[in-house]
Specification:
Elements (H helix, E strand, L loop, with lengths): L1 E2 L9 E3 L2 E3 L4 H23 L2 E3 H7 L6 H9 L3 E3 L2 E2 L5 E3 L3 E6 L2 E7 L9 H5 L2 E3 L1 H16 L14 H15 L11
Antiparallel strand pairs: 1-2, 2-3, 4-7, 5-6, 5-8, 8-9, 9-10
């Protein structure tokens, strides 16, 4: 029996080609791999100071997919530091991002960088919305709430069966004939 050098800190003993652990090999391997992944992701977060704007918008949950974010950027609906950008533009902490979604324009300051889409509270920690943007969104929502329903402004919609029959009768009487304001030679 000898201790495996890679698993020595976890108490795994190697017998020939078999690894044996008194507490259960499966649990220890999972724990060891989780520790390695956590240390790698921590190193990546510290080394990452810039990220593509489309990836950041997706991670910050402005858009549901990266391709939607890229499309909106391509349409000129996203600006970084008051300049329209391409999807490959890198954003860093401290930049100001304006993103238009429908009739609402949100202006946010970048507080964090992430290339992974996480839960909403984590995504909201990546940015801070400016006071002007919050006031504008509140004003827009109040206007939308108090405005009249667009469908109510339509006085007449599609003609009913009776209206269609009346139109057909009128066409047969001579509405389709050429009419002129000049005097008829009768």
């Amino acid at each position: 029996m000898r201790r495996s050098p890679a698993w020595q800190s976890l108490g795994i003993i190697t017998i020939g080609s078999l690894n044996w652990n008194p507490l259960g090999l499966h649990w220890l391997k999972k724990q060891y791999s989780r520790d390695q992944e956590a240390s790698k992701s921590a190193q990546n977060k510290h080394s990452m100071d810039k990220i593509r704007i489309d990836k950041w918008l997706w991670a910050a949950r402005f858009y549901k997919t990266r391709s939607l974010a890229t499309d909106e950027i391509g349409k000129g609906r996203v600006a970084v530091n008051d300049q329209t950008v391409k999807a490959s533009r890198e954003v860093k902490v401290g930049d100001t991002v304006k993103a238009r979604q429908g009739d609402i324009t949100r202006t946010v300051k970048v507080l964090g960088i992430s290339d992974q889409r996480g839960p909403a509270p984590t995504a909201q920690a990546l940015y801070e919305e400016t006071d002007d943007s919050l006031q504008l969104r509140e004003k827009t929502s109040v206007e939308r709430r108090l405005s009249r329903e667009p469908a109510l402004s339509i006085e007449q919609g599609r003609p009913t069966k009776r209206n269609r029959r009346d139109l057909e009768k009128a066409k047969q009487v001579g509405w389709n004939d050429r009419w002129s304001a000049s005097l008829d030679p009768d």
